[in-house]
Amino acid sequence: MQTWLSDRLDTARTRWAQFQDSRSGQRLLTGVRWLFMAGVVSYLAYQFTDIGWGRVWRALPTTPWFYVLLLLMYVNLPIAEVAIYGKAWNATARGLLPALLRKRVLNNDVLGYSGEAYFSLWAQRNTNLGYRAFLLLAVFFLSGQVKLLARYFPDETSTVAAGIAVLICVIAVGVTFRRAIFSLSSSLLLWIGGAHLMRFLINTGLQVTQWAVVIPEVSVGSWVTLLALHIVVNRIPFVPTRNLVFMGAGLELAGALQIPEAALGSMLLAQTLLDRVLNFLTYVGTSALDAATVDDCEELDALSLPDEGA
């Protein structure tokens, strides 16, 4: 039975890959993505019209802390990943940062997890590291996604405890089976897991703080609930423009959470638009930097994994 099921899954994956690579498949998938985006944008336009565009405009964030915290959240993930990949691969920030910034742009503005696919191809093309090295870091990246389980817990304390517990379990499994899968030291695996956990806690703290400084009259509990929704939406795979999806869902919950709709809508709209601008500037800037630099590829070719006993 297991062999039969495995054969069927392999056949389905092969056919799906062939369909994706075909011209008609690419056109259909592109059309579906654009149709989905058009539906989300239309729904948001309806919501903002119902609230009142004038109210939304007047409620735009004026505190400078909103923009400072936005920048800190923007660079949090790339900087954390530079530290993680740099330590695991003995690489420099100069070689890794442009690719990791583009990975963030692709995940946010193109399609969920398309950034991981891009970075996998980039790593295989620009480094001499084996597949297991990338698999290790992909697994630990996905360990940050297990917070999706948080939606099954009734309160914020359970949510945080569950997220930390699941992450610790993932790290423990990685350490236990490292010789068969990863060929990296237990201290490095624990460091990578701890770095991902720290990145997650910092980013969620910055996000709640940003919302609270813009609309201080809302309770912390409401922001934590909205944060849980944000985490769930951002962990849904293969969804384009997840920020827009979160904006629509957040506005639907605003009344139940006792958050002013106009203020929340304008804040999320400003955050989304500024994020798009930053993504555009980042992608253009890093692409131009790569085109003008040739030394980085030679440097990345010399990467090596730490010894198991290190």
Question: How many DSSP H or I helices?
Answer: 14
DSSP summary, beta strand count: 0
Q: If you compute it from the alpha carbons, what radius of gyration comes out, rounded to the nearest whole angstrom?
A: 21 Å
Contiguous uncertain segments of 5+ residues: 143-160
**Coarse morphology:** globular
What does the largest sheet look like?
none
User: Structural class per helix/strand content?
Assistant: mainly alpha
Write down the domain tally: 1
User: How far do the termini sit from each other?
Assistant: 43 Å
Give the ordered list of helices and strands: HHHHHHHHHHHHHH
Helix content: over 70%
Instruction: Work out the strand percent.
Output: under 5%
The average pLDDT is: 72
Write the layout of secondary structure elements.
Layout: H1 2-21, H2 23-51, H3 53-58, H4 64-89, H5 93-109, H6 114-126, H7 131-143, H8 156-176, H9 178-181, H10 186-214, H11 220-234, H12 242-254, H13 261-292, H14 295-301
